[in-house]
Each structure stands twice: as C-alpha cells, then as structure tokens.
Target: Phosphoglycerate mutase
Amino acid sequence: MKIVLLLLDGLGDRPHSILKGKTPLEYANTPNLDRLCKNAETGIMIPWKQGLPLGTEVAHFILFGYDMKEFPGRGIINALSRDVEIEEKAVYLCTSWAWVEEKDGLFIEERFTEDLSTEEILELMKLLPKSVNNYSFKWQQSIGIHGVLEIKGENISSDISDSDPFYDNSYVMTVEPFESNSSSAIETAEALNIFLKKVYRALNASEINQKRKQNGKQPANFLLTKWAGRKPDLLNFEEKHGLKACIVSSGILMYGIAKLLGMDFIKYNSFSEGVNLALKSDYDFIHLHTKETDEAAHTKDPRNKVKVLEEIDSQIGPLVESALNEDIFLVVTGDHTTPSFGPMIHSGEPVPIMFIGKNTRVDYVDTFGERSCTRGSIRMYGSDLMQMLLNYTDRAQFYNYRQGSKQLNHIPKKINKFCP
Ligand SMILES: [Zn+2]
Model:
C-alpha cells in the first residue's frame, strides 16, 4: 500500500478575532479536508516538544524518524539544495549580505541588502579573504543575496554559533564555540571571527559600497553567517524504514532534505500538478509538500492563510478519491505552527493530524481543525509518525525480532540467506 503524506507547511495557527475567534484552518471552507476527516482516525501531534517552535528542516528531520542528535545543521541542507559538492573536512554556513554601522559594535541596519545585482555580488565576493590561520574560505551564491560559505581545514568543527542574531534591531554577534569546548570548535570560531573582521573592513572601504551610498542605496558591508553544518553519517530513508521514498514539492529546501536523506525529488510547478504527480509516481512513501500555507501565515494576515487553505482544499479532490477507495494510505498534517499574526516567526503548539485508509480506527471528528482534532483518538509526537505508518500499512516489525544485524522498525524486503 502506497503511503502519501500530505504536508501543509506551518499548518497550525492561533485563534484570531478577525476570524470570529477561529484559526485560519477552522475558519476556512474546506469540504475536501472535512470529508477526509469524517473517514479518518484523527488527533493532535506535538512536532517535537510541547511549546517548542521548530523550523521546517528540523520538523521534517524528526517526522522522517531521525534523532535530533544526528541533525547535521541547516547549513549542510542549504549547501546540498544548491548542489554544492560536500567535502569531509569542511563546514557549510548560510550567509546573507547585510548593511551594518559601527555603533558600540556592528549594529545591523538591514539584515538583507536586497537590491544587489549579480555583478555587484560577484565583485563583493572577490573581496572576501581566501584564508585565515589554517582555514580556507569559499563563498558560493545560492539565491539572490543568499549564499553558502565553506570553511575547510584539518581541525574543523560545525559546533560554532551564528554571527546573525536573526531578529531585527540587533548587533552582529561574536562567533563562539557552541555547546562545545573542543579545540576544533574554538579554532574554527576564532578563524571565522577574524575572517568577518577582514570582510567588514574590505567591504566597507570598497568602491561598490561607496558608489551605492552616493546613489542613496544601502551598502552591503557585511556577510552575516548562521547554521553551520557538516557532512553527516546518516542511514538513508529506505535503509531506515524499508520504504522507497520521494518528496514531491516546489521548494528548494525540500530538495536539500531529499538529498540529505537519500530520497528522490520530484518538482512541481503548481500544487494541483503535485497532487497528480504524487498519485502517479511509483514509490512506497510519497511526501507531498506545500509551502504555501506557511508563506501565507508569514504575511501576518490570517485571511491570506484562509484563502490559501481553501485553494489547496479545492485541488485535493483526486487525493481524496484515492484515499477513500483505499488505493493509497493518506495522512494529512503540518510540520509546525506558523501564527499568522503577532511577533512569533513559528510557534510551539501541536498540529492537527488525520490518517485515512485501511486499518484505521475511524473516530467521531468530522471537521479538520486544531481544536476539533483534540476530540480525536490520537495523541502523538512527530517522532511516532513513521512507526505508525509502518504499522497501519502492515509493514511494522514485531519488536525484538532479530532479522539481520540491526534492530529494524520494518519487515525487511530482503534477508541474508543462509548457504548450506
Ligand atoms: Zn515559516
């Protein structure tokens, strides 16, 4: 039985007076989701820990059954998503060109100097130091003003903090060893701080930035860094769960996650095309992802999320038919909560979830929403999802059976045959 996980990114939300005290999902007119819900086992899922806001990459890592202790850092996912060749003795950081002013430190006037042309970016890139101490530095553009910084050296560590404070009205932060006192973390942080000082001096004095200031434009006189990551040693998704898997998405981050976990990636141009691709493609596990819900919430107008949810709902008809015919096993949920108002970027509430297909204990919830689903039968964590899907689809391994050299969560497709 093919499993389809329909993941509406940042689905969870908070009630708002503009929506008569409802959340966008509760307020939206979603007949298809509600039809599924009437035929589903429903409940709520805590993405990782109660009250803890997560980014999409972390939430997905957990949903796909991986332990956060193994998480390699977002920098590596971004690097993979741009097809950067990953080396062993290197770390990868996400960067953006920024405007800073010296005010008792480097005050960040603008985290993103948005209007840089590609020619300007290439010129700025030439001004970056190539090496500091025993480390070499290489910057590559990803999208627009965003890029990936590679730091390479013998004594290298990704356990270093960010120079980008992430929030507005703040200062560039000193890079420190992060949760580590290893010599590699100390030396990598030290080299990066020296690199960033040189970057500031070179960019601030550069001709490009003098010209930009004269023309009334914001200068790009700093390179903010964050989310250092390193090549991980992870089991790929199929080894871990016994499922041939792919991600169907339009997002570049999802491409990076697929590469990280050895899943195939299918890109769609419109969500309705994604629905058809998910139904047509030949995999055991298909992750059908849309970022539209999260992006709508980031506009900080709950009505935009309502609109997007209604549009998505109107496009999932074929998925509903397949699930109700038991041609596929369908699960619908979000990866985290993105409040569509207030100062939080993401927040830490649980998300609603529903399972549709054979072997489900259909319960009595008939509308898909954050609060209606609390009347359903399931209370779960994101880390439970893969085991539950293996169980629903009759693939779960009887606990403590020893089929091969490792404890498996699934009945293996192949065994190591004994030869007489
Ligand atoms: Zn988001």
